[in-house]
Amino acid sequence: MAFSSLSIPFVSKPFTNNLGVRIGTSPAECLAVSITKCSKSCSSDEETAQCTVSGNCKRRALILGIGGALTVNSFPAGPLLAEVKPDNYSMFVDKADGYSYYYPSDWRDFDFRGHDSAFKDRYLQLQNVRLSFIPTEKSDIHDLGPMEEVVENLVNNVYSAPNQIGDILSMQEKNIDGRNYWTFEYILTSPNFARAAFATIAIGNGRYYTLIVGANNRRWRRFRDRLKVVADSFTVMDI
Fold it and tell me: Which residues pair with 19 in a beta bridge?
C-alpha cells in the first residue's frame, strides 16, 4: 500500500458567525465526515446544550462490542478490522448504510435529530459522537474543492451557530482502500462556553458522510486522545 505524507502551514482565523453482534477489533487511522448543510440551535448550558441538524436519516445498525499553525497530513491507513482492538471501546456498524466507527463502551446511544446514529457520555451530554449523511452526486471529497477552503467553510458556516466563533486547529487527509478522508480539529466558542471536536468527512455510496465527536473545551485536553480514537476509526464501506 502506498504511503504519502503532506504537511502545510495554515493560519486559522476566527469567524463569527439495524442489528447487534459483538466482535473484537480496533480503530484504523481512518477518518470520515461528510458535509451536511444544517440549521442548528444551541443552548448556553454547557452540560445540556444540544445542536439539532435538519435532515432525513434513519437510525440503528449493527453494534460490535470491543472490550496556531495548522498541519495538514495525507497518508493511507489499513482496514479497520485488521488492527488490534482498543480497550474500553465498542464498535457501531451499519451495513445497510455503509459505515462503522468506535465509541467509548460506557457511552449510551441516543436520538440526535437529523443523524443516523449517535452515542453520548452518561453524564456529559456535550461529550458525544454522531454520524449523518446526505445524498451527493460527487464521488470523492476532492470534488468539493481545496481541503483548506472546504474545512474553513464547514467550521464557520455549517457547524457553528450564529453566536459562535470557529477556530480550526488541524487538518488531516488519509486514504484507506482507495477512499479519501479528511479529518479536522476545531473549537466553537460561544459567549458562555466552548466546545472542541474532531470532524471527519468522506464520500461513498452516493453519500456525504459526516462524523463529529467532541466535548466541552474545558475537558478537551483530558479527553482529546480518547475521542481521537473515535474520529480515526470511522470507515465507509461499499453497499
Answer: 62
**Contact between residue 70 and residue 9 where contact means Cβ atoms under 8 Å apart:** yes
- Percentage of residues in the chain having pLDDT higher than 90: 59
Over the stretch 73-92, which tens digit does the pLDDT of each residue have? 444 444 444 456 689 999 99
* Residues 72, 172: Cα–Cα separation, whole Å: 5
The residue type at 137 = E
Sheet hosting strand 179-189, strand order edge to edge: 72-76, 165-176, 179-189, 194-204, 207-216, 128-135, 117-120, 108-109
CA distance 127 to 195: 9
Using DSSP's 3-state secondary structure scheme, residue 153 falls into helix
- Does residue 186 contact residue 14 with C-beta atoms inside 8 Å? no
- Cell numbers placing 142: 476532492
Q: Look at residue 185 and give its three-state secondary structure.
A: strand
Phi, psi of 199, deg, nearest 5 = -125, 140
Residue with cell 453524564: 123
The answer to whether 227 and 215 have CB atoms below 8 angstroms apart is yes
Residue from 28, 131, 31 nearest 81 by CA = 28
Q: How far apart are CA 9 and CA 148, in angstroms?
A: 10
CA distances from 175 to 76, 85, 97, 155, 186 (A): 4, 20, 20, 22, 21
Does residue 67 contact residue 95 with C-beta atoms inside 8 Å?
no
Assigned C-alpha cell, 96: 445497510
Q: Of 107, 117, 85, whose CA–CA distance to 210 is shortest? A: 117
